[in-house]
Amino acid sequence: MTEILMPKATAVWLVDNTSLTFDQIAGFCGLHPLEVKGIADGDVAVGVRGADPISNGQLTREEIEKAEANSDYQMTVVKPKYADLHSPSKRRGPRYTPLSRRQNRPDAIAWLVRNHPELSDAQISKLIGTTKTTIGAVRDRTHWNSANIKPTDPVSLGLCTQIDLDEQVKKASARRRKLEEENPEMLADTLKAQEDLHAEQEDEFKSNDDIDLETLFGGSKD
Q1: Which of 3, 26, 139, 215 is the most buried (most CB within 10 A)?
Q2: Domain count, the chain
Q3: Mapping DSSP to helix (H, G, I), strand (E, B) and coil, where does residue 69 land?
């Protein structure tokens, strides 16, 4: 239900000027029935001046009369005339990303794969406007620029908003819980850091240095 302005002040007015039940007033104002009873007894909202919900356009006299005639009836808030103008419109179609920011997509993908493994490729694609092929290449480290990819928050890169990211993470929360239960090691670090890869390469080179010519060609030291 739409929240009303000054709920306690409105409850004070309804207690003083109507025969509504405590439950009806509490339901309309978003308060607890005991709190409304406290207002009626003078223990709560002492000194608060009542706010007329009819004059401020939040309630009609007809709604009050319906509720007074039926104790089970719950009043509804009058919808503001221009409420639809304040609601954000849903975006349709693929997200457009400026050319100057498209080169940062692999960095954003790497960050999302590492920090939010519960997100599906479809969600990542929708979030930052990329393709599943690119996402797969970053996941598998077969991307042509893998050596230079640095995981970076897509919000800081301007590829999506924090609201959009939170929305997708919330949708995937059930998938994350399943991942934690079945594969807890996946959440430690889904995508290895560049430093770890360099360290592995250095270890491999060091191990190769230990191979002498005799081992390599099968010759004798004599």
Answers
A1: 26
A2: 2
A3: helix
State pLDDT tens for residues 121-155.
999 988 888 889 999 999 999 988 888 999 999 88
Structural contact between residues 76 and 29, judged by C-beta atoms closer than 8 angstroms = no
Instruction: Give the domain range for residue 123.
Output: 99-207
With b for 16 or more beta-carbon neighbours within 10 A and e for fewer, the 123-139 pattern comes to bbbbbbbbeeebbebbb
Tell me the C-alpha distance between 139 and 94, whole Å. 22
d(CA 36, CA 34): 5
Same domain, residue pair 20 and 63 = yes
Helix (H) or strand (E) holding 173: helix 173-182
